């Protein structure tokens, strides 16, 4: 068994209210009047109040500087977007890591392994080497990069950390996830871009995974389960183009998840010889309000069961891979979890892939 210890989170400086972002969108994208009315309704019903970005563009209250502008037709080349990622990702990562280390009482020189996670930027040498240099970590630590796996990638990061801790009982594995989704804004009119522009935001989260709990607020990792739904291959994808990373995000995703999710949970319960009632807490990646609504309805969950997921969606939007760590942190701080109670954790991404983890309060 291994343990998730403290979780540190961080968001960029620029915060925008959801309806401020709507106003930006109708100014940047040539919607007709009918499309604007539909979009306004969707933004109001999105379950999101605010989102964060490394860019000031999305609200006039953030000043007049703009990354997306008329000179580049709101469509900067991919190298310009990735250059901004290189500048902005490290400060956000180190802020999340510092918050995590401070809460865990682990010194930076004690870290033995580093796992970095991102699907919104890439370079070599990259963020991993910059983190080692900036935080003065051991230059001989073992490091791994998880890239381009989307919203479920943090669970894969935890899975790798869990494997390392089982093999090396003295390991202290730092897992850090950083996503700058707003760097890949596209100003074309399509269902995919309308959805992604309405949901995604920027954020970072970090945690320490060890073979023994470091404090009284750790989460035990019991194991993981993964499923790919081939019916959703064309409904969620993430590809690189000359004008940025392009998101394929169909409105059918919530329905596809609903049809296959019960089978995933049944396999987890069978493997651990548990019943539905044993899952006292649910940490579900808030990929969108409809996803949470469908799961709540399908499993007849009390409203409070998904409150952590809904609160993260409400305050931060969908930050891709760090989001599930935000949800777990919210549960630890506000969920009144008792020792031994189970947390069913799940996130979704391209494939259509579902990654799950069974955790409990240590």
CATH class assignment of the largest domain: Alpha Beta
Which residue ranges are poorly predicted, with pLDDT under 50 across at least 5 consecutive positions? none
Q: How large a portion of the residues is in β-strands, by DSSP E?
A: 15-25%
Cα distance, first to last residue?
A: 11 Å
The CATH homologous superfamily of the largest domain is called Thiolase/Chalcone synthase
Q: In one word, what is the shape?
A: globular
Might you state the CATH topology name of the largest domain?
Peroxisomal Thiolase, Chain A, domain 1
Explain what this protein looks like in three dimensions.
The chain is α+β, with helices and mostly antiparallel strands and 362 residues long. The protein folds into two domains: 2-210, Peroxisomal Thiolase, Chain A, domain 1; 219-361, Peroxisomal Thiolase, Chain A, domain 1. It is built from ten helices and 13 strands. It has helices at residues 18-28, 33-44, 78-104, 127-134, 153-167, 191-199, 253-272, 289-298, 307-316, 323-334; strands at residues 2-10, 14-17, 50-53, 113-118, 142-147, 172-180, 202-210, 219-228, 236-241, 244-249, 281-284, 342-349, 353-361. Strand 9 and strand 10 (244-249) form a beta hairpin. The protein starts with a strand and ends with a strand.
What labels describe this entry?
two-stranded antiparallel sheet; 37% helix; 13 strands; 9-stranded mixed beta sheet; alpha+beta; 10 helices; Peroxisomal Thiolase, Chain A, domain 1
């Amino acid at each position: 068994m291994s343990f998730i210890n403290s979780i540190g989170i961080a968001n960029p400086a620029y915060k925008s209210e959801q309806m401020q972002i709507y106003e930006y969108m109708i100014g940047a994208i040539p919607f007709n009047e009918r499309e604007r009315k539909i979009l306004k309704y969707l933004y109001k019903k999105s379950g999101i109040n605010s989102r964060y970005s490394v860019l000031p563009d999305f609200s006039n209250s953030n000043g007049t500087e703009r990354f997306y502008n008329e000179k580049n037709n709101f469509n900067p080349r991919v190298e310009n977007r990735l250059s901004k990622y290189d500048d902005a990702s490290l400060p956000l990562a180190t802020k999340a890591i510092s918050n995590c280390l401070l809460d865990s009482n682990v010194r930076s020189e004690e870290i033995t392994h580093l796992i970095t996670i991102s699907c919104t930027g890439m370079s070599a040498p990259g963020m991993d080497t910059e983190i080692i240099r900036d935080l003065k970590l051991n230059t001989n630590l073992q490091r791994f990069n998880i890239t381009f796996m989307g919203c479920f990638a943090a669970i894969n990061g935890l899975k790798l950390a869990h494997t390392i801790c089982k093999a090396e009982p003295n390991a202290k594995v730092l897992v850090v996830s950083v996503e700058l989704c707003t760097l890949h804004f596209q100003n074309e009119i399509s269902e995919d871009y309308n959805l992604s522009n309405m949901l995604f935001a920027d954020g970072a989260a970090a945690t320490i995974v060890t073979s023994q709990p470091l404090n009284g607020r750790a989460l035990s990792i019991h194991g993981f389960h993964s499923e790919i739904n081939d019916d959703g291959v064309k409904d969620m994808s993430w590809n690189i183009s000359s004008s940025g990373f392009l998101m394929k995000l169909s409105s059918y995703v919530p329905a596809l998840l609903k049809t296959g999710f019960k089978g995933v949970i049944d396999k987890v319960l069978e493997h651990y010889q548990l019943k539905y009632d044993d899952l006292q807490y649910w940490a579900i990646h808030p990929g969108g309000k409809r996803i949470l609504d469908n799961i709540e309805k399908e499993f007849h969950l009390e409203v409070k069961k998904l409150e952590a997921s809904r609160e993260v969606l409400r305050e931060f939007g969908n930050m891709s891979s760090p989001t599930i760590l935000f949800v777990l942190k919210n549960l630890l701080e506000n969920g009144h979890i008792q020792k031994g109670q189970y947390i069913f954790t799940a996130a979704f991404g391209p494939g259509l892939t579902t990654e799950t983890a069974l955790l409990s309060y240590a």
